[in-house]
Amino acid sequence: MNIKLFDSELKVMEVLWREGDLPAGQLAKILKEEIGWNRNTTYTVVKKCIEKGAAERREPNFVCSAAISKEQVQNYETQELIGKMFDGSKEKFFAAFLDGKKLSKEEIQNLKQMVMELGE
Predict the structure, then answer these.
(1) Contact at 8 Å (CB) between 103 and 111?
(2) Residues 72-88: pLDDT tens digits?
(3) How many CA atoms does the CB half-sphere of 88 hold within 13 Å?
(4) Which of 36, 53, 67, 88 shows a CA-CA span of 20 to 30 A to 14?
Protein backbone atom coordinates (compact mmCIF):
# COMPACT_ATOMS: atom_id res chain seq x y z
CA MET A 1 0.00 0.00 0.00
CA ASN A 2 1.57 3.27 -1.13
CA ILE A 3 0.31 6.13 1.00
CA LYS A 4 2.24 9.38 1.19
CA LEU A 5 1.86 10.88 4.67
CA PHE A 6 2.84 14.41 5.55
CA ASP A 7 4.59 15.26 8.83
CA SER A 8 1.35 16.26 10.56
CA GLU A 9 -0.32 13.00 9.51
CA LEU A 10 2.68 11.03 10.73
CA LYS A 11 2.26 12.64 14.17
CA VAL A 12 -1.29 11.28 14.38
CA MET A 13 -0.20 7.88 13.12
CA GLU A 14 2.72 7.70 15.57
CA VAL A 15 0.28 8.07 18.46
CA LEU A 16 -2.06 5.43 17.03
CA TRP A 17 0.81 3.00 16.44
CA ARG A 18 2.14 3.59 19.96
CA GLU A 19 -1.15 3.68 21.88
CA GLY A 20 -3.46 1.54 19.74
CA ASP A 21 -7.13 2.37 19.13
CA LEU A 22 -8.20 5.65 20.74
CA PRO A 23 -11.33 7.79 20.87
CA ALA A 24 -10.69 11.00 18.92
CA GLY A 25 -11.02 13.05 22.11
CA GLN A 26 -8.24 11.09 23.79
CA LEU A 27 -6.09 11.34 20.66
CA ALA A 28 -6.61 15.12 20.67
CA LYS A 29 -5.66 15.29 24.36
CA ILE A 30 -2.41 13.38 23.75
CA LEU A 31 -1.47 15.57 20.78
CA LYS A 32 -2.24 18.72 22.76
CA GLU A 33 0.10 17.55 25.54
CA GLU A 34 2.85 16.37 23.18
CA ILE A 35 2.89 19.07 20.49
CA GLY A 36 0.34 21.71 21.47
CA TRP A 37 -2.34 21.03 18.86
CA ASN A 38 -5.89 22.12 19.53
CA ARG A 39 -8.81 19.74 19.06
CA ASN A 40 -9.79 21.14 15.64
CA THR A 41 -6.26 20.67 14.28
CA THR A 42 -6.20 17.06 15.44
CA TYR A 43 -9.63 16.31 13.97
CA THR A 44 -8.65 17.89 10.63
CA VAL A 45 -5.48 15.80 10.40
CA VAL A 46 -7.32 12.63 11.50
CA LYS A 47 -9.85 13.25 8.71
CA LYS A 48 -6.99 13.48 6.18
CA CYS A 49 -5.51 10.21 7.47
CA ILE A 50 -8.91 8.52 7.09
CA GLU A 51 -9.38 9.90 3.56
CA LYS A 52 -5.98 8.49 2.57
CA GLY A 53 -6.78 5.08 4.06
CA ALA A 54 -4.08 5.30 6.73
CA ALA A 55 -6.56 5.39 9.61
CA GLU A 56 -10.11 4.26 10.28
CA ARG A 57 -12.82 5.49 12.59
CA ARG A 58 -15.78 3.76 14.08
CA GLU A 59 -18.61 4.59 16.38
CA PRO A 60 -19.40 4.94 19.17
CA ASN A 61 -17.08 7.65 20.41
CA PHE A 62 -15.30 8.20 17.08
CA VAL A 63 -12.66 5.57 17.88
CA CYS A 64 -9.61 5.93 15.64
CA SER A 65 -7.30 3.12 14.64
CA ALA A 66 -4.35 2.66 12.31
CA ALA A 67 -5.30 0.99 9.03
CA ILE A 68 -1.68 0.59 7.92
CA SER A 69 1.42 -0.42 9.84
CA LYS A 70 4.40 1.73 10.63
CA GLU A 71 6.51 -0.75 8.66
CA GLN A 72 4.40 -0.16 5.52
CA VAL A 73 4.97 3.58 5.79
CA GLN A 74 8.68 3.16 6.49
CA ASN A 75 9.05 0.87 3.48
CA TYR A 76 7.20 3.28 1.17
CA GLU A 77 9.15 6.32 2.40
CA THR A 78 12.46 4.45 2.05
CA GLN A 79 11.67 3.32 -1.49
CA GLU A 80 10.60 6.85 -2.42
CA LEU A 81 13.82 8.31 -0.98
CA ILE A 82 16.00 5.74 -2.77
CA GLY A 83 14.16 6.36 -6.03
CA LYS A 84 14.32 10.13 -5.76
CA MET A 85 17.81 10.68 -4.35
CA PHE A 86 19.81 7.60 -5.37
CA ASP A 87 18.45 6.71 -8.83
CA GLY A 88 16.70 3.70 -7.35
CA SER A 89 19.99 2.15 -6.24
CA LYS A 90 19.92 0.57 -2.77
CA GLU A 91 23.69 0.19 -3.03
CA LYS A 92 24.16 3.96 -3.53
CA PHE A 93 21.77 4.63 -0.63
CA PHE A 94 23.64 2.28 1.67
CA ALA A 95 27.01 3.75 0.68
CA ALA A 96 25.74 7.28 1.37
CA PHE A 97 24.30 6.15 4.70
CA LEU A 98 27.61 4.69 5.82
CA ASP A 99 29.79 7.53 4.47
CA GLY A 100 31.52 9.24 7.36
CA LYS A 101 29.41 7.54 10.00
CA LYS A 102 30.88 5.94 13.07
CA LEU A 103 29.17 2.68 13.88
CA SER A 104 29.62 0.70 17.06
CA LYS A 105 30.90 -2.85 16.86
CA GLU A 106 27.41 -4.04 17.81
CA GLU A 107 25.81 -2.01 14.99
CA ILE A 108 28.34 -3.38 12.51
CA GLN A 109 27.66 -6.93 13.68
CA ASN A 110 23.88 -6.40 13.40
CA LEU A 111 24.26 -5.05 9.85
CA LYS A 112 26.46 -8.00 8.89
CA GLN A 113 23.85 -10.38 10.27
CA MET A 114 21.05 -8.65 8.29
CA VAL A 115 23.05 -8.87 5.06
CA MET A 116 23.87 -12.54 5.68
CA GLU A 117 20.17 -13.31 6.25
CA LEU A 118 19.29 -11.61 2.94
CA GLY A 119 21.55 -14.06 1.13
CA GLU A 120 19.83 -17.11 2.58
Answers:
(1) yes
(2) 999 999 999 999 999 98
(3) 0
(4) 88
